[in-house]
Prior knowledge:
By secondary structure, this protein is of the alpha/beta class. It has helices at 2-15, 30-43, 51-64, 76-90, 109-116, 160-169, 221-230, 254-265, 267-290, 319-327, 355-360, 375-390; strands at residues 71-73, 100-104, 106-107, 121-125, 145-151, 173-177, 185-186, 197-201, 214-217, 294-296, 303-304, 310-314, 337-338, 364-367.
Amino acid sequence: MILLRRENILKDQIEFKMQINIVKPFLPSLDELSTEMSQILSSGMVTNNSPHVRLFEERLQTFFGSTVRPTLYCNGEMGLYHLIQAWKHKMGYTPHETFEVLVPSFTFSGTINAIVMNNLKPVFCDVDRTFVLDVEKLKVDSPDIKMIVAVGAYGNLPNLELLGKFATDNKLVLILDNAPAFGSKFKNRHACSYGYSEMISLHATKIFTSMEGGVNIVNDPEIQDYLIRLRDYGQFEKVRGNIDIPGLNSKMQEVSALVGLKNLDKVDFILGSRFKNIEKYRLFFHSLERDGLLQTMKVSDDVICTYLYFPILLNEEATSFVEYMQVNNIAVRRYYTANHELKYYKGKYRDQGLTYTNSIKDRIVSLPLHTVMSNDELDFLFTTTKNYFIK
Length: 391
Ligand SMILES: Cc1ncc(COP(=O)(O)O)c(C=O)c1O
């Protein structure tokens, strides 16, 4: 059996010379940047709330329709860290105090790290067939629970109305780690229009990028005010550098803002091209799903999902599929993962039952899905995947 698979792997290697990387960032050319780049450098204003950063924030506000101006960061992780910090502060807690936070175990470690680095305690919750929080299973089973951090895994979203109602009914602060979900919508509206405080990552691996970067989109002016200070060490005045809350330096700089602005000019193309590819993936993988070979992520009719990667759930443990794809020059990731099993988190925090998470954690694989893909690349990816199952 193992021998047979090796032969198949070699055969595919000989047949195809193409290579598909896990991501292919959509970026402007040097020509598109050069005029403004030289202005930025000659002005010396390369950071500290500089002109392109402010403009990028204004234009993101128009794009998302938030009531206050979004705030940009050097990366998404720092944005999420400060977003949780700002809410904790507004709730009246000092940095040394703690409470519990409902959060899916099935996410990137960055979600959980941002909670723990704020001296808060994650309570690991389950996801469902959408690979995002199973809202029906959430419980407020302790008075210590004060916050929910939901995650837009793979660009998918939970039912934002139901989750919002659960948070309001139980007086919990609700934050959305929407790092992977630029452009995703619920009932054709961005999450911020439902009152969510959200972080979207602008990392090069993401759907929309400024190379490194992250943005917090909130509707609460008080939170926005804290955020502006938190990314600047907590300073409320700059002469003596006095602070009233301890922040960190996590500001976005001009070059990233310029790249982000150039990409924002093309956001309709980026999302449009992506949706065309998503349709092709869905068509192909749904046919494998109908044959019982794998399962795809369930996306509610209410959700427009921009698919960061294309996750598939295998019927078996993923190692042999991952190896097969790798030797056939298609990079894949075992992503997301069950955080309650990561070395640091194992056994440290309680959970609310993780039956579904435990049943998928070793079978899930993310396939590359780029904004721009040639027909040859799509054919190569689909044929290689299919060959794994039919041989
Ligand atoms: C769910 C989630 N949260 C947080 C992050 C951190 O974002 P960044 O890479 O921009 O720091 C990521 C990035 O992969 C993510 O997927």
